[in-house]
Model the fold of this input.
Amino acid sequence: MAGPGWGRVPPRRGYLSGGTERRCRELLAAAGGGGAAAAAAAAGAAVLVPLCSVRGRPSLLYTLRCRRLPGPHSGDVSFPGGKREASDGDAVATALRETREELGLELGEGSVWGMLRSLPDRQGMLVVPVVANLGPLENLKLSPNPEEVAETFTLPLAHLLREENQGYTHFRTGGRYGYTLPVFLHGPHRVWGLTAIITELTLELLAPERYRRKTYVPGRHLAAPPHRA
Done:
């Protein structure tokens, strides 16, 4: 799913245009068959990747998880989402239900563009990122659940696409270089971990000629050689 494979980049203010939506829906649908579909069906969790516009600027909506939450993700920057429940028909249903529970937003499946590929979290559980467009944020009333969400904030796509706001962290395993993950800087909160990887995949989808992948996991499809400073 390397950036150039997503096609030509739209004009900066066209990231959420009808033409971009059609292109992205087609690409996500084409990438979602075979093994990707099986992985999504087997995934234990899903998150919504909430595209939106803020005063006309294409943006992504993030949450800051409440520190009172149990588990390793408390206090993390995240997208709305969580574990799949037995009543959820699929990953899209999980992402929409979790968004309703966390943010009080009732979204229809028509807002969903498609699914990015499933990714493992820190515990190895597969998570399905579900891309959706909320539309103008000014037209929505967010009601964050204080038991789960400490804060919501947005970052413009233009901010995320500036190289000075992009970084990466090298991790060591067994005393040697292991892998590299992206980080996004200079916003209200640092975006890192799985949320940063999903942000990266979203930028590659929306702006394939403007974003250069930072993630590098040797021997995996996710890998692309990182830029070494």
Summary: The longest strand covers residues 126-136. Helices lie at 18-31, 34-42, 91-103, 157-161, 193-206.
